[in-house]
Design a protein that fits this description.
single chain, alpha/beta, 5-stranded mixed sheet
Length: 237
């Protein structure tokens, strides 16, 4: 962690006290968690007051922590890291949990990426809507106007509602789209498919006809290209 980031973290903790909670970052970034009822007050201070001066909202994104830390692939061939999420299992088919350092308190989160052009520092803020069935959180549109389309995207893809947003409607999916594609319980094949119906003279929506299937994980196998190198290393030993 560089000196500028450490100073930012100290200033934030002194200013907000127990209204924010620092989250450890493996990359040395300034990351804080805030309760929904304190979100607007904290954001207003982060934008207006001198030690922070976060004049730019870079992004607002949703996160779905459903089954966070779970293993998806039924395999004993894949690795525990990299692109694969499969691990070796005693039975070869039983799914098991991965030990994680962080267990989210609730399912959905909203993450705000802030930038101060004046002071050239960044901060990440995270808030968890309280109701998982209907996640609602205050809109920061009145503080940063750039939140307009960002919050619409999070609503469209995650179903997170932003109270006070001036025009909260879908932005990426179609008007009649059912569900929210980035939720972890949304089917990979979707719910409906569309095609052009020449008899009706318009696009028709129909139940999806694709058969659901489990994707094949990336598996690291023994590569013959390195066989001679391994044999040489074993010979040297």
């Amino acid at each position: 962690m560089n000196r500028k980031t450490a100073s930012l973290i100290d200033n934030a903790e002194q200013k907000f006290g127990d209204r924010i909670l620092r989250v450890e970052s493996s990359t040395g970034e300034a990351v804080f968690e805030v309760e929904p009822e304190n979100l607007l007050d904290v954001c207003q201070v982060l934008r207006d007051e001198g030690p922070f001066s976060f004049d730019t909202l870079i992004d607002v994104c949703g996160v779905d922590y459903l089954d966070y830390g779970s293993i998806e692939w039924q395999t004993n061939e894949a690795t525990e890291s990299g692109f694969s999420r499969g691990v070796e299992s005693n039975t070869g088919t039983e799914l098991r949990k991965v030990k994680t350092r962080y267990q989210p308190p609730r399912r959905f989160a909203v993450v705000y990426h802030l930038l101060s052009v004046e002071r050239n520092h960044r901060l990440r803020l995270r808030a968890f809507p309280r109701d998982e069935a209907t996640p609602v959180i205050d809109s920061v549109y009145t503080i940063w106007n750039s939140a307009d389309w960002f919050e619409r995207e999070a609503f469209d893809l995650f179903g997170i509602l932003f109270d006070g947003h001036p025009d909260l409607r879908r932005i990426l999916t179609d008007y009649g789209f059912i569900g929210h594609p980035f939720r972890k319980d949304f089917p990979l094949i979707g719910n409906v498919e569309v095609r052009y119906d020449p008899e009706l003279g318009r696009v028709a929506y129909e139940p999806v006809t694709i058969e659901p299937r489990t994707l094949v994980p990336k598996v690291i196998r023994h590569d013959d290209r390195f066989a001679s190198l391994r044999e040489k290393e074993q010979g040297d030993d």
